Amino acid sequence: MACIAGLAMHPVASRAQDALPAVEVSAGETAPGSSLGLDVPNATGSRLGLAPRETPASVSSLGSADIAERNLARAQDVAVRFPGVTEAPAPGNGGTSLVARGFAGHSSVAQLVDGTRLVVASGTVTYPFSTWPFESVEVLRGPASVLFGDGAIGAAVNYITKKPRFDRTEREAFFSLGSFGTRQGGIGLRGPINDTLAYSVYVDAGSSDGFRRFESYDRQNYALALAARPSSALKFTFSFDGGRNDDARYFGTPLLDGVLDSRLRRTNFNVDDSVVKYDDRMWRAKAEYQLGNGIQLRNELYHLASARHWRNAEAYTFNRAGTRVSRSDYIEILHDQEQTGNRFDAIFDGQLGGLKNRFVAGLDWYRTTLLHTNNSPYGGASTVDPFFFAPGRFISPVPTLPGRHSTLETTALFAEDALELAPGWKLVAGLRSDRMRLDNNDLRTGARLSKTYSPVTGRIGAVWTPSDAVSFYGQYGTGTDPLSGALSLPNGGNSFDLTKGRQLEVGAKGSLPAIKGEWTLALYRIEKRNLLSRDASDPRVTQQVGRQSSTGVELAVAAEPLPGWTVDANAALLRARYDDFNEAVGGRAVSRAGNIPVGVPERTANLWTAYRFQPRWQLGIGARYVGARQSNAANTARLPAYTVLDVSLAYEYSRSLDFSLAVKNLTDRDYAVSGTGNVRWLLGAPRTVQLKARARF
């Protein structure tokens, strides 16, 4: 932190020649389709606008053209193509939960829109879901609390939306038809209105009949923005984004004696009047001002509103004879969530002690409220014939009533600095201090509880670039995660603090000019402390003493070995363990130390390769491997590993029109993306075929 402390004691030079040099991107040096982009400035790895090559951390990104080439329509489908990032979706978490570096769920992997953190409500985030308005998707792996606050020990995923352009006009549209009655279409327009105003309009919609009963969906998505540039130094951007999602109501398939019965692949055991609906809306007002040479001021005011409704029978198990399926957990939940915030920062380009320096400091404030309505304690049960299934209706012995109202208010001061110590040497450091107050009002009992958290997180790292072809880095960082989601109190009390994490990471990044290639290598160890654990001498007592760790290596490479042939590949290996963790079983504390954490694969890999075999024809092949995942802390049940293959064929009819035919899950493999070991699996999508036309006009 010396460079930050030192800057506060020295005036910042504002001469233009003292500013950090702009990064020049040469398209000829980077393979098309690369998810590394080592020389492209990145908004997620740092607030300083550093490129991944000069950032002492693991950063990846994928642009809109490559997202379209790979036929990735869902936001999280992009995130899981990066090293070590996988998914753990379920309707209850919005189908958006991710896993990274040995840590699972929304409380450990943050998701953002243009750098604005989406606060997790009861383990749920439901926006964004469509990739159509994205400029790119960026991922910072490892603790990101110093940048984005708590709940980011595993990673932070940032969805960057397309902005209004003053330099040119862009118009595009697409339409697709696919398996199971799937239809999608969208239009995108952006460009200048005059010298002062510019706009962007991206809207899309999709619907499907679904592979199973009750797996149909109907979605609409929009991203609208207007930019005003009164002068060359001042710019305002007003945006309104959101989406309505009448989503699939599939909560998994029960296993018969721990095995998937192929006769049930297309059976959905939910009730006839089931509901999964999300409505998210976000408006933002951003101001950017260049205050002389070397000083930039930025401010963003925003408001996010989310309305969610679930009404489903969510649990299914076979009886011992294997002739009937018992349904339980008839759950109805409604979320009314609002998040209002403001983020201000100032960037200074100058010198510190005669050395080139860039510094940013700011204030981040937001207030989130959640009205949680439910039919707790979630009764209701029924028994059905699995092979002559009649869905029935939702039944609950308990009425659906408001349960609690929670308010989280956070104020944070942050600072980050990049100092060029010597030719080829850069020191990057950051610090963030949060003050968080959570008020929880139980609307049924009248009980009111509050908790204040004051975490301080930071990171410090160095980058050494001995040549244009390679750089080495090392970093130490800290982070925090909530125990049970940002808007709830763990164990119903206010005696527990945030969990704390720390990471040590070293790595290298480099270029392979002969094949227009890039590569990255990272080795890390993360320790997470203060997990809830049962007292070994008295299982009725919960203590915040548990520990969890992961040690891993990630390798990524992107290249164009031959003209027209591109390869983008990555692999991750890790060892994740509970180091100190007791679980209450049958009234006694049982140690789970040495076991693998729930939902964490220790082996993952991704591959995308494309070959332009004719001037207008391109073949693409993709593969994604996810290793086995444990389903409980005892490690007595697990979800099996799987590999999914995709293939696409694209034809460029003209410079303004192209067609593509994509087949997902080419081998039609049954695989579990989440679930409960040998009881119930949430199955991934079967083989699907999609024909798409895309036009630019």
Automatic annotation (TrEMBL):
UniProt-recorded name of the protein: Ferrichrome-iron receptor
Keywords: Cell outer membrane, Membrane, Receptor, TonB box, Transmembrane, Transmembrane beta strand, Transport
InterPro entries assigned to the protein according to its UniProt record, in alphabetical order: Beta-barrel_TonB, Beta-barrel_TonB_sf, Plug_dom, Plug_dom_sf, TonB-dep_rcpt-like, TonB_sidphr_rcpt
Phylogenetic placement of the source organism: Bacteria, Pseudomonadati, Pseudomonadota, Betaproteobacteria, Burkholderiales
PROSITE patterns assigned: TONB_DEPENDENT_REC_3
UniProt GO MF annotations: siderophore uptake transmembrane transporter activity; signaling receptor activity
Cell compartments where the protein resides: Cell outer membrane
Domain spans labelled TonB-dependent receptor plug: 52-155
Ranges of residues in domain TonB-dependent receptor-like beta-barrel: 235-666
Gene coding for it: fhuA5
One annotated Gene Ontology cellular component of this protein: cell outer membrane
Family to which this protein belongs: Belongs to the TonB-dependent receptor family.
Signal peptide location: none
SUPFAM superfamilies: Porins
Record has Membrane as a keyword: yes
Membrane topology: Multi-pass membrane protein
GO biological process, one term: siderophore transport
